[in-house]
Every structure is written in structure tokens, then in C-alpha cells.
Amino acid sequence: MSLPSWNTAPEPQNSRLPEWRVPLSELHWSETEVQRVTGVLRSGWWTCGPEMDALEREFENRLGVRHAVAVSNGTAALHLAFLALNLSAGDEVITPSLNFVAAANTILHAGAIPRFADVHSVEVPLVSTETLEKAITSKTRGICVMHYGGSPCHMDSIVDLARRRGLWIVEDAAHAPGATWDGISCGRWGDIGCFSFFGNKNLTCAEGGLVVTENDDHAKKLRLLRSHGMDSLTWDRYRGHSFSYDVTVPGFNFRMDDLRAALLRVQLQSLDAWNRLREERVQWYRCLLGKDPRWTLPFETHGGTSAYHLMPLVLGAEISRSDVMLYLRSRGIQTSIHYPPIHQFTYYRGRTDHAGLKHTEDLGRRILTLPLFPQMTYEQVRLVCNCFRDAVENGTPNANVHNDE
Ligand SMILES: Cc1ncc(COP(=O)(O)O)c(C=O)c1O
Question: Do 205 and 212 contact (CB within 8 A), yes or no?
Fold first, then answer.
């Protein structure tokens, strides 16, 4: 498969990669990334330094936010956010169960308990003001929303609810760089916003994360906790800004390095263009799959500007999801499930409470993620749609068929 012209890097020559005809996601980069990372390698300074500083300023400018703090991954971003908000034992933080497990895990690591909220519906698998309000108890301190698949939650009414009930908001914007609600960037609505730059995200540097906040005290704490609680960085000492340091809180090593920051700075410049390409591919899917009683395409009428991170589809209750996934795998098409509900995982079962998770449990059984990435061709989207229809109509053929074709 030849890569589109705007992806000018040589084709990956990696026999370790499985040979999907259509993978779930695919990295995209240009020769510029290669040159910028090589430049950092040659500079003699690889750990956090000028590239990380520049990345933070660029994120602040882009989002119009006072502070951006780059960290080692999105989980570290969430962990630091919850620590900065001073949770105590017994405190509860409301978060969707239809989510990646990072938010729930880090709420626990910060000393509190996650309390799971349902999503609004199969058509809009996001927490809503109503589902969040239902989950509030006397122990609730905050809300952690997640912009599922890049589609923004209704942040204006969620912010109103939080203000009325004296709660803070953390936004898990791992899926949503470039997404907006009411013209305001996701990540900027809450008290703290968290991004992930994992390899399958819209913006990636392999492993990375970033926290944004308007609040000076939160920012100070986030920066301290990111680097062992030390009041200066190795980079400050290298530049002669300080000779020693004090430790004022027991922190972590959650720093980002300059190699990754340089990679991200290049990727950030293409984010809007890539999100538009994602949107176009989602429109192709919508046209080719059309309206059909056997499946539902979430977010068809949702507002705001999505980052189109995922292409979710909800199968009719009578269709076997595992059969569909096996069929697509046999045709060389990778699919996934976003997400198995957190409250059903072994660790969380019986350890956490909720106020009814009807839609989450329904989606947990029926939701399926189809491939989506900016350089996906129309032929690939059509192949996925045709094979998906075959899967629904004909069931599971023998595995590994595509290897013989
Ligand atoms: C919604 C969500 N939150 C948090 C994370 C955690 O990010 P990371 O993998 O960078 O730690 C992810 C990443 O996969 C995610 O999808």
C-alpha cells in the first residue's frame, strides 16, 4: 500500500507488524518529524528542556489557557490532576463506566473512590447532566467527564451543574484534541483538562500526556508533582538557573522528554487537517452504512466539533459481536471494543457503587469500533463496510481467509 503524498516518510519496513489489510489505526508522520527528532538527538539534550517548554507554550496558545504541563502519558496527566485537587479518603469522583480504565484507577491512586455514571443513550454514549446529577452523593467532590471518541460532552450544562453543587471538573480529553463545545476547546472547560498522546491517538509521540489549567495553584502543584516534588528541574540547573533544589511534596517522575516534545510539536501543526480527514472518513462510513435497523451509528446528530477519534457502531441485540469481529479479522480488518464497562472488571466489581448503568451495560455488549485514521482510503472504508455487511448477513467464515487471498 503506498502512503498518501502528505505522509512523506518512507513506508514502514517492519516485519514485526501484523499484516492487517485495514488496521484499527495507523501512525501518520512526515519527514519533518524525522528531521526534528534527529535534531534533538544531535543537540546533546534529550530530557525535558527547550522542546518541552515550547510545546507547553504552543498548547497554551492553541487552547487559550494559562498553563500547560507536559507529562509522560495520559494516565500520569489524570493522576496528577486528581492529586492537585486534594482528594481525601472517602471522597467520591463521578466518572463514566464506559471509559478507559485510567480515570478510575487514578482516582483510586489519589485516595478517593470512583462512582460510575451512566451515559446518556446508545445514540450519544456520553455522560450527561442528568446521568451525572443522578450519581451525586454527599461524598462527591468532583466529576471526571470523558469526550468519548472525540465527541464533546455538553460542557455548558455540566459546568452549570458542577457550580450549583460545588464540584470541580476534570476533563479526560484523551480522545479530543482539537474538539470544541460551544466554540471552546475540550480540556479548557473543566478545572483541569488531560490529554494523552499514546500511539493510537489523534496527536501522538508514542507515549505522552499533557495537563491544562487556568488555576495558578493547580499548575504549581502539577509541576512539582511531575518531577519528584523538586522545586527545580535538571534543565534549570543545566542553564545555571539554580544549583540545588528543595523537595516540598513527595512527587513522581512523570516528565516528558524533548524527543517526544519535538515530535508532538510537528504533529500539532497538522492536527486540524488530520481531524478534518478523520471527519471525511466518518462521513464516508455514514453514507456507505446508511440507516439500517440492524445497527446504530452514534453521534449522528450530536453538536459541537468532534475530533473524530473513533468510529463506533452499535450492533442490534440479535447480532453476535464476537462473530462479526471474527469475520472481519478473517478478512484482515481489525476492530476493537471501546469499552468494556469498568464496573464489570474483576477488580471493580463490588468495590464501587453506581446509580444504574443501563445504557453502559447495553453498549458494553453491543458496541464495536471500526478502523479510522486520516490516511485511510475510500477503498479501505468501502472494504470495511462491505465486509461488515457480509458479517452481519452471513456470519463467521474460517479464520485467516485473507492470508490465502
Ligand atoms: C479515554 C482515555 N483516557 C486516558 C487514557 C490514558 O492515556 P495513556 O495511555 O497515555 O496513559 C487513554 C489512553 O488510551 C484513554 O483512551
Answer: no
- Atom index in ligand 1 nearest the CA of residue 338 equals 16
Instruction: Check 201, 221, 291, 358 and give the catalytic one.
Output: 201
Give pLDDT, residue 12.
59
Residues 4 and 28: their CA atoms lie apart, in Å, by 10
Distance 74 CA to ligand 1 centre (A): 5
Ligand 1 centre distance from Cα of residue 124 (Å) = 20
CB 342 within 8 A of CB 102: no
Residues with CB under 6 Å of ligand 1 are: 73-75, 99-100, 102, 146, 172, 174-175, 196, 198, 209
Could you give the strand order of the β-sheet that contains 113-117, starting from the edge strand earlier in sequence? 67-71, 209-213, 192-196, 168-172, 140-146, 92-96, 113-117, 353-354
Per-residue pLDDT tens over the stretch 387-400: 999 999 986 554 44
Element (H, E) at 181: strand 180-181
Q: Pairing between strand 140-146 and 92-96?
A: parallel
Look up cell 440507516; give the residue.
291
Identify the DSSP state of 89: T
